[in-house]
Specification:
two-stranded antiparallel ribbon; 4 helices; Glutaredoxin; Peroxiredoxin type-2; Redoxin; alpha+beta; single chain; two-stranded parallel sheet
């Protein structure tokens, strides 16, 4: 698959694994249940900002990459962006813990 450029449509049949946020699994040590997220379907006809990082909990990603998106989330959403999503080379459990460590609740209104 070639890289996506601004304005490109997302490819068909792309599914990611993620752990949805629940109040019961809010603690960073809590383990939720991974679910499939059909990005191709969920993002159809939506404006999505998608960024990727090499790995959760790495110094560069935790210090330089993610914080700017968190700090500017309202500004980004103010540009009629429906979803801001991050991809990393980690499993759903690690991404869930990283989101909790950064105050993100894995909801569409968050990153």
């Amino acid at each position: 698959m070639s890289g996506l450029k601004p304005g490109d449509s997302f490819p068909d049949d792309v599914v990611f694994s993620y752990v949805p946020y629940t109040d019961e699994s809010a603690a960073i040590t809590a383990c939720g249940t991974p679910q499939n997220y059909a990005a191709s379907k969920e993002w159809k006809d939506k404006k999505v900002v998608l960024f990727s990082v090499p790995g959760a909990f790495t110094p560069g990603c935790s210090v330089r990459h993610l914080p700017g998106y968190i700090e500017n989330l309202d500004k980004i959403k103010g540009k009629k962006v429906d979803i801001v999503a991050v991809l990393a080379f980690n499993d759903a459990f690690v991404m869930d813990a990283w989101s909790k460590a950064n105050g993100i609740k894995n909801r569409e209104e968050d990153i």
